[in-house]
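Repro:
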Amino acid sequence: MKAELQFARPGVSFKNGKLYDFSTRRIVVLRGWPEPMAWVKTPKRPWRGTRKWADEALVAFFRRLDEPARRPAPLETYVLAPGTIAIIQADGLDISPEALEEHRIKDWKSREAAWKERTTCIEPFSEQIPAEIRALIAPLQHRAWHLLCMFARCPGAVDLFRSNPALAFALSGHWFYREHRVSNPIRATRRLVYKRQRDILAWMGFPGTKSVQQMFRKIPIDHLHPALLKRLQGALLDPRRGKVLAHLPALPPEVLSLVVHDDYFDRLSMRFFMEMLENRAAARDVRWLLRDTLRMNHQIGGGYVPARFHSLRRLREMHDDLVAPVNDIMLTRKIDFPEPPYVGTDAIVPLCTLKDLVEEGIQMRHCVAAYANRVAGGAYYVYRVLKPVRATLAIFWYKNHWECSQLMGFGNLMLARADREAILTEFFDGVCVRGAIKSTPDEREDWAVGVEAQADPVPFDEAIPPEPWVPCDRDGHPLLVFSDAARSAVETIRTVFSGRRVAS
C-alpha cells in the first residue's frame, strides 16, 4: 500500500456506514456502532489504527451537532448578514457591487456545504450510536471515542460509568496511568468492569481506598483531561492534598489542577477553594492570576505576597498592586527581543522592544511586562491588538508550533468568543517567519480559555530563584515535605530566619 496521501478537499463524507474526515494533514475514517473502529492516514505514514485522531474527530462532530441547524435560504434570495458586511468594511476590502456579490456567493456555498455535511454525514453516523450511549459521551471534550469503544465491547461498562463517571473515564484509557501496559487492553477492561471500584483504582496505580473511590465520584468529566488524573496519582501521595480533596464537596478541573500543582497548592487556603466552588465563572482565572502574581513577586525580589491567599478578591488586589513595581523595574533593564515569529498585520502589531512591552502593560493595566525574560528567550511573544477590539495577544512555543497563551482586554478582561475567534484566525493565517503552526482554531481556543492539559505551558523562568523559606534540593527544585517531624523542622527554620529578616 502506498504511503503517499492523495490530498482532497477538506470536508466530511459518509459511505457504507463509515465517516470520512478529510483535511490537508490527514484522513480519518470512523466506523460506528456496534463495532467502532478508526483508521488514519498521513502524508508520511500508511493506514493504521488510531485512538487519538478518532477521539478528536468524534468530539468535533458532537460539537457541530450542538450548534443550531438551519439551512440557508436559496442562493437567489440569500443575503449577507449585516455583521458580515461590517467585517468586510472593517477589513478595508473592496465593497463594490461585484465584490459584494462574490462574498455573498462564497458565504452561501460555505453555509450550504456545512449544512449538507451535518445532515447527510454527521447526523447519520451519530444516529448509529444508541441514544443512551450518545447522551453519555456527547458532552465530553476528551476520551469520547475511548468510552464509546469500551461501552461497545465491555458489558457492564455503562453501569460502571453511571456509578463513577471519572473512574470509567480513567479505565477507558488505563494504559496511560499504569507503569506497565497490558498486551490486550480490551480484554483487561472487560475483566475489570465487574470488580470492586477500589480494586480497579489499585490496578491502574491509584490508591485503592474508599476515600479515593469517593473522591473520583466528585470529579466531573465534561472538560476533564486525562493528564490531570495522571498528576492526581502523584498528588495523592501527599496526605495534606488527600485531606483537602476528601473534604471538598466537588472537584472540578479548575480546583483539581491547583491542588495537584506543587507551586500553587501551598498558596491557597481551604476557604479559597470553597470560594472557587461557589463562583465557577471566576475560578477559571485563578490559575493564571496566581501564576503571574508569583512571577511578579519573584521579579521584584520576593516577600510581597502573603503565605496563603484566603479569597479571590485578595489575589486580584495583590496581582494589580504588583503591576506598577514590575513595570518600573523593567524600564531600568536592557533586554533585547528576537525577531517576532509572526509579522502580524495592521491590526495586530508585534511588540519588538522592552519599552513597547512596558507601555502596553501601562495602557492595558496588566502584567505583560513580567514576560520580558520569556520574550527575550525566544519562546514567547506579545502583540498589540487594535481591532476588532483593543486587546493584548501572547503566544508561546509549544510542541514545535506556536500557540495562543493569553488574549486579554483592558484590565485582563475576557473577550467575547466571536472577537477571540476573529483575532486568532487573522493572526495565525498570517505570515510566520520563525517556527511553524499546526493547530486548528478549535484547539487554539481550547487552550486559550484554560482547558487544563499536562504541565503548566508557561513555567517560571529558570533564572528566577526559589520562593523564600521553601526547602529545595541541590538543583533548586522545591521539595514536598510529608512527615510531621520534617514539617515541624521547616516551620522552625522559617520562624527563625523570618525573625532575623534574612532575605534568602
